[in-house]
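hey
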């Protein structure tokens, strides 16, 4: 089992540290959902990766739990301008999930139970940058925050961290997800303030 404490690497963790431009600090944990909270019984839960060649890789909840997990402490930045520092999660790295997946794809479209989706370059899911998270602050992830499991990609705006994640479609071409089709940025780097298409 590997433990990564990202919160204590890199930039200094003190109260004077900078937020991305245009963000303010909150200590609450706001809920932002574009629709109702789907309820997925763990017996029915599946995570599926589909490649550009149409091959599928599937994990049941039991199989996900059997994979090595990591604890990570990261800052999250919502495009509605709140940021939350040092949020503590536990989950499976996408490096672990994608390790055996054969693909030459450059893009990922992440799908959620309930129909939400979001796109990002595949490389942003790799190299210790993304997790399928199922615990928050030491407890199982609450349904309103994406439980049983959500994507966590903290270096991009939080809308890329798809709640109730059900799978990833790997593609040769970029294809906009839910908010991206409505005008939000295809990449969404908070430090470059990429909120809307064209930013
Ligand atoms: N499936 C799904 N995932 C989602 C959303 C959503 O509406 N549906 N909202 C996104 C947005 S805009 C943000 S800021 C975060 C909010 O996560 P939270 O409700 O746990 O704070 O989830 C993201 N993931
Ligand atoms: Mo958001």
């Amino acid at each position: 089992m590997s433990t990564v404490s990202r919160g204590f690497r890199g930039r200094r963790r003190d109260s004077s540290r900078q937020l991305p431009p245009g963000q303010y600090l909150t200590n609450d944990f706001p809920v932002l959902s574009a629709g109702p909270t789907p309820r997925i019984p763990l017996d029915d839960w599946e995570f599926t990766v589909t490649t550009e060649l149409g091959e599928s890789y599937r994990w049941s909840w039991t199989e996900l739990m059997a994979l090595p997990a990591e604890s990570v402490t990261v800052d999250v930045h919502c495009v509605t301008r709140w940021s939350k520092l040092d949020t503590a999660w536990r989950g499976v790295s996408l490096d672990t999930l994608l390790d055996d997946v054969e693909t030459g794809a450059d893009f990922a479209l992440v799908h959620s139970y309930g129909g939400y989706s979001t796109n990002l370059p595949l490389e942003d899911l790799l190299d210790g940058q993304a997790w399928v998270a199922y615990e928050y602050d030491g407890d199982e992830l609450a349904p309103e925050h994406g439980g049983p499991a959500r994507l966590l990609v903290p270096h991009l705006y939080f809308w890329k961290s798809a709640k109730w994640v059900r799978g990833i479609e790997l593609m040769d071409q970029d294809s906009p997800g839910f908010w991206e089709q409505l005008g939000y940025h295809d990449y969404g780097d908070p430090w470059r303030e990429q909120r809307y298409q064209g930013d």
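The mean pLDDT is 94. Residues 118 and 179 are 7 Å apart (CA to CA).
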